[in-house]
Amino acid sequence: MANSRFEYVKNFEQPDTLLPNTWIVVRIDGRGFTKLCARYGFEKPNDRRALDLMNAAAKAVMGDVTDITIAYGVSDEFSFVFHKSCTMFERRASKLVSTIVSTFTAYYVYLWSTYFPDTPLAPPLPSFDGRAVCYPSVQNLRDYMSWRQADCHINNLYNTTFWALIQLGGMEAKEAEKFLAGTLAKDKNEILFSRFKINYNNEPESLKKGSVLFRDYELVEPGSQPVDHADGGFGEPAQQSKTQIENDKKRRAKAKVVVEHLDIIKDDFWERRPWLLS
Ligand code: ATP
Ligand code: ATP
Ligand code: MG
Ligand code: MG
Ligand code: MG
Ligand code: MG
Ligand code: MG
Fold first, then answer.
1. What is the CATH topology of the domain spanning 16-149+205-276?
2. Does residue 34's CB lie within 6 angstroms of at least one atom of ligand 1?
3. Which of 102, 141, 187, 254 has the highest CB neighbour number within 10 Å of its CB?
4. What is the pLDDT of residues 71-115, one digit of tens each?
5. Among 77, 73, 72, 76, which Cα is nearest to 36's?
6. What ipTM was reported for this prediction?
7. CB 121 within 8 A of CB 108
């Protein structure tokens, strides 16, 4: 039923429905934050206010979009995980990504003055890009999360050492970069300790681990309820009725979103929170 002779242009739209029954990760990343850091005087290597603002905006997104199961943030990026059963926007990638990016950006700007009361926003303003990727198994999804957290660790160790050489060691940026070229993790740990008496292990967990946001539910003691991933993440939840699943979904949606700085590479985090991946 054509409403006008112009309506045929609708047919030029390309379908972008994401593969069904896969975990959808939407990762957003600050555009040109290297410049933005300088513009707004972020402390180096880690500005606490900016990190808290990222977490607050992500928490608000999770409050608005209850299909998100878990989120992981580091630096100027955040990964939002949609449950494999998610049907929001018929799983259309552009709709999902644009909604997350704009909701996040809106909260980031709205909450800015809470975290930077003395530095008002003016153009150039913060903006974010985004992408969606599907992961077919729980193992793939966990490897994705592990990849981001491992990256957080590698970058934070580098940045901590790089900025110590500049701020405490009086080096120029170029000099520090050259000094660190080719060094391994253990070398950086050694530089930090021998030169600056900094034990990297004692750095805050929030900087070493990044931020994990999830709906707090009932913790499960490890061993009491083994998580069965034998189906590789493709199977249906074990013999739950439709109403049971619906009720569980509602309870989860209502649960409080918490911000933690935990290890998500090891099994323990996931074994204690089986609802995240079930
Ligand atoms: P692009 O648009 O390609 O993403 P970018 O300049 O944002 O470019 P990234 O690779 O995303 O590049 O790096 C983000 C930069 O912002 C890094 O240099 C990182 O150290 C810095 N940054 C992000 N958050 C903070 C923070 N809380 N405190 C200090 N620096 C930060
Ligand atoms: P969806 O999330 O699916 O887009 P929606 O409620 O935004 O849902 P739209 O089809 O986008 O639905 O319609 C936007 C609605 O907002 C319409 O009812 C439109 O009349 C109203 N609207 C938009 N701009 C204005 C405006 N400037 N003044 C009054 N009403 C407006
Ligand atoms: Mg980018
Ligand atoms: Mg960036
Ligand atoms: Mg980045
Ligand atoms: Mg409209
Ligand atoms: Mg609309």
1. Alpha-Beta Plaits (3.30.70)
2. yes
3. 141
4. 999 999 999 999 999 999 999 999 999 999 999 999 999 999 999
5. 76
6. 0.94
7. no
